[in-house]
Amino acid sequence: MDRMDNFEQVIFGAEQNWTVILTATACGTGALMLFLKWFGHKQSWKKIQRAKARKETSLQRAELAVLQFNESHPETDTSLILSLSLADLSKQLKGGTLTPEAVFHSYVEKTLEVNRRLNCCTEVLLESWDQLEDIGSRKDGLLYGVPVSIKDNIGYKGHDSTCGVICKLDLPATGDSVLVEVLKRQGAIPFVKTNIPQSLLSYDCGNPIYGLTLNPHNPQKTPGGSSGGEGALIGGGGSVLGMGSDIGGSIRIPSSFCGICGFKPTANRLSSRGASSCSRGQKSVLSSFGPMARDVDGLALCMQALLCDHMFRLDPTVPPIPFNQQVYQCSKPLRIGYYENDGYAMPSPSMGRALRETKALLESAGHTLVPFSLPRLSYAMHELVLRGFSGDGCATMLSNLKGGPVDPSLRVQIISYGLPRTVKKILSILINPIFPRIGASMESLRGASSVQDLWRQHADVEDYMHEVMAEWRRCELDVLLCPMMGPAYNHNYPGKLTSALSYTIMYNLLNFPAGVVPVSTVTAEDEEELRHYKGNYGDLWDKLYRKAVTGGEGLPVAVQCVALPWQDELCLRFMREVERLFREKK
To answer: Which residues are catalytic (predicted)?
Structure first.
């Protein structure tokens, strides 16, 4: 018995020892994990502080440079310079009536003032002063002496392209992107980078690094996104020309919300080489780089300048198709398709009114308007757009958000992205009988189940493109007129309302060039009608939409112009016609 007791004591003691060891190990592992998490957050915080310091230093040095210039050039007529259209500004620069120095410092000064109100800039590019000194060698360029703002994700040597995420901080570009190189070759002076939403995959405009950007017409409203800093800066008068990118409306939405013109070309009409992204490799919904300006002629001049031999040499993957001035200048009557409600997201009262007014003006000018609708839109939104965009189950996007806080504007949007595929499936089954549109979207966020499934999805996208183009040819259309999202939303609503993107993201899916032209403003009657807005589905998204756009009286409202792939000049020509008719009406 004694030996047995001794044996039990030994065993019991061993168990206690192992328990102590395992407990200590577990505690140590937990403590280590907590330490690593704390250390990671501290490193992220340091990165953010360094980025903010760089921004503040650049703003202060720019302000000092402007002050010194103004003291030595009191004769500069800043108001006149800022009032000129891009075309007129370019003519006066080439003709010598204005100097590049006067124009540059006038716009830097205005940018600093606009940024103080709207927080639209991420960094002033101090190297632009060096470029200004040597600008005389580029006098033959189409954009000689024109200051240009660029979106944060467009690469500029020595500067971060953050996409609003911490993992891309402290990774300065080793060279200029192709777009920046060509802009410089054409005599333009990229002088400031502008703010974006975190990860670029939102049409709000805030991130944990640079903060929230405000709308130039109403600070309670978002400027849109993801090229929101560009929209705010140009809409606020701080830039005459900017470059953005568009993967779901990211040029067109901020242009609409801020009352300017914006153009999304056919994908790869302009080079994307050297630009940063949080969704690289995703091929179902295509991204495009394009210009944003105060008027359509400004967009066309920018496209003409960029579509040159220098870009085609730098990036041989871009088709060598120069800008077709003859198509842009043509004035023959057009056969125009149109729709007022796509059947997925009901337009706001001001959106619908803007489209009807535009249709009436086009008809009175001798153009033919033909009813048109995109086939199987609900299927396209869920099975092609959302499932394609979420092909990897949203893993790539979520991986870019690791290591730091998630911006409030994005939090609601990403909740469903991070759920396991099985949970998404169960939720879609439960939600579908009550809110079929939301249930179908949840199912689509599961993405592709295999590589084979993804290839099938890509084939379905191709088939759908040809289906739409067949309907287009059947109607014998030249171009298409459709509503444009607006007016500007209240802050933090875009992340809750991806459903409204049907008016813009479909043309990324189809790879059709599309642009927006401001044509009106929200009236008191629009606001009154909005009170009775029910939507197409009467679901949670429709109720949120009414709250998102309420309080918009006086805000800009735009329409969207669309053409077939590679007919970018025809799309711009249509936009110019819409712009002309509304100017004559005023």
So the answer is: 151, 226, 250
